[in-house]
Amino acid sequence: MKRLLDKCPMCGKGQISLKTIDEFIKVGNNTAVIKVKVEACDRCGEIYYDPETIREIEFVRKELKNTKSKLLTPIGKTFTLSK
Predict the structure, then answer these.
(1) How many Cβ atoms from other residues are within 10 Å of residue 28's Cβ?
(2) Distance between CA 37 and CA 50 in Å, rounded?
(3) Distance CA 67, CA 83 (A)
(4) What is d(CA 39, CA 50) in angstroms, rounded to the nearest whole number?
(5) Long-range contacts: 25-33, Cβ < 8 Å, 24+?
(6) Tens digits of residue pLDDT in 23-68
(7) DSSP for the chain, written as a single string
């Protein structure tokens, strides 16, 4: 990922740096976790995605809708508290 920003456009004061984060993508009851590179502000925490990362997130979102996807590997279960 090539840096696109130097100063944060949101707060106007923070410095932008490259980071790798876990992105949680949820569609219905299904969730995928992928590592993505982003630009992040060291002051306000705002995160900026480049177009390639957005395309990757959208691809994973489509795969989550496809219940027969062979590209996603289950790694466990997700639970909710019943009240």
Answers:
(1) 8
(2) 9
(3) 28
(4) 8
(5) 25/57, 25/60, 25/61, 25/64, 26/64, 27/61, 27/64, 27/65, 28/64, 28/65, 29/78, 30/64, 31/64, 31/78, 32/60, 32/63, 32/64, 32/72
(6) 999 998 888 999 999 999 999 999 999 999 999 999 999 999 887 7
(7) -----SB-TTTSSPBEEEEEEEEEEEETTEEEEEEEEEEEETTT--EE--HHHHHHHHHHHHHHH-TT-SS------------
Residue with tokens 């569609």: 27
Residue 52 tokens read as 């390639």
Token representation of residue 38 = 């982003």
Residue for token pair 């997700």: 78
